[in-house]
Design goal:
Elements: H1 14-17, E1 19-28, H2 32-43, E2 46-53, E3 58-65, E4 68-75, H3 81-89, E5 92-100, H4 103-112, E6 123-124, E7 130-134, E8 144-148, H5 152-156
Parallel strand pairs: 1-4, 5-8
Antiparallel strand pairs: 1-5, 2-3, 3-4, 6-7, 7-8
Bound molecules: cobalt (II) ion.
């Protein structure tokens, strides 16, 4: 509980947070396509790009709803971490991804604050992004992904 009133940026306010947006919310499913179809038909979503990650072990399908992006995770190998997640917990919220300006700085500050890191160094994510996961045990049970997009540096140039 903060002494500050809600919504008041403190000494470590928006500028030092390094977070620029909610990148996406990821949902683990056995099959992405039926959920995509439901979201398109039922909520007016738009099907976005898709790609295979982890050397074919994971199919990722993006779905857009206005400013919100969902990332549907469909494992293609029984030993993939998302397949194990589905085995133990069933389909559901897998992680929340925050877009950051400087993923290395964010990882360093999280580590310094005692947050358990799953990735000590960033690794390749979808669309040429660099991503790193922070352990849910340190963050209220939610797996958090930090995501730095490759366009970020270019975007900030004049
Ligand atoms: Co993600």
């Amino acid at each position: 509980v903060s002494e500050r009133s809600p919504g008041t940026p403190g000494a470590r306010g928006p500028e030092s947070s390094n977070v620029t947006a909610l990148s996406h919310i990821a949902i683990a499913v056995r099959e992405a396509d039926p959920l995509v179809e439901t979201l398109v038909a039922g909520l007016g979503a738009t099907r976005g790009a898709e790609e295979m990650l982890d050397e074919g072990g994971l199919r990722v399908v993006f779905v857009h709803l206005g400013p919100v992006t969902l990332e549907l995770l469909e494992p293609r190998r029984a030993d993939h971490t998302v397949a194990k997640f589905l085995d133990t917990r069933g389909p559901g919220l897998h992680h929340v991804s925050l877009e950051v300006k400087d993923i290395l700085a964010k990882l360093a500050s999280a580590r310094a604050a005692g947050v358990r890191l799953i990735d000590e160094i960033p690794r390749p994510g979808a669309h040429g992004t660099q991503v790193a996961f922070l352990h849910p045990k340190s963050l209220g049970g939610v797996l958090l992904e930090l995501c730095q997009s490759p366009q970020d540096d270019r975007r900030r140039e004049p």
